[in-house]
Design goal:
Radius of gyration: 14 Å
Largest sheet: none
Shape: globular
Distance between the termini: 38 Å
Number of helices: 8
Structural class: mainly alpha
Order of helices and strands: HHHHHHHH
Length: about 130
C-alpha cells in the first residue's frame, strides 16, 4: 500500500538518523508505483519541507511529485523551488527541466501565468523554467 510507504518515507525524512540510501530507495519505489492518489499528501509534505527549510526532503519529495504527477505538477514544483533554502537544487531543477522538455505546450500553459505571480521569486523561477522549452 502506497500510503504506508509514504508514511514511512515521511518518518525517514524527519529522522536525522535514517539511512540515506534506504530513504532514496523508498522514494524511488513510491515514484515508480504510479499511485497518483498519493499526490495530495506528497504535495502537502513538500510544502511542509519548504516551510521547515528542509532542502533534502524538498529534493526527494519534489522528485516523487514530478514522477507521479508529470508536467501538470510544474506549478507545485516551481513554487517549491522558488524558495531559497541555500542548496543547489540540482535534482529539483533537473526534474523541472525534464518536465518542461517532455511536454512544452503544457509547460507553457502552466508556467506563463506564474511569470506574473505576485511573489517575484516564483515569477523569476517560472521564467527560468520557460527558457528550457525546446
Amino acid at each position: 500500500m502506497t500510503d504506508d510507504r509514504v508514511t514511512r518515507l515521511i518518518e525517514m525524512l524527519d529522522d536525522p538518523e535514517a539511512d540515506v540510501d534506504e530513504t532514496i530507495d523508498l522514494a524511488d519505489e513510491i515514484a515508480a508505483s504510479g499511485d497518483r492518489g498519493a499526490l495530495p499528501r506528497l504535495e502537502a509534505e513538500l510544502d511542509r519541507a519548504v516551510a521547515d527549510r528542509n532542502s533534502y526532503a524538498r529534493e526527494l519529495l519534489g522528485g516523487v511529485v514530478a514522477a507521479l504527477g508529470g508536467t501538470e505538477k510544474l506549478p507545485v514544483l516551481v513554487r517549491a523551488s522558488a524558495v531559497d533554502l541555500g542548496d543547489d537544487q540540482d535534482g529539483l531543477a533537473a526534474e523541472i527541466v525534464d518536465l518542461v522538455q517532455a511536454d512544452p505546450k503544457t509547460a507553457q500553459r502552466l508556467l506563463h501565468p506564474l511569470t506574473e505571480d505576485d511573489d517575484l521569486s516564483v515569477a523569476n523561477r517560472a521564467d527560468w523554467a520557460l527558457r528550457f522549452v525546446p
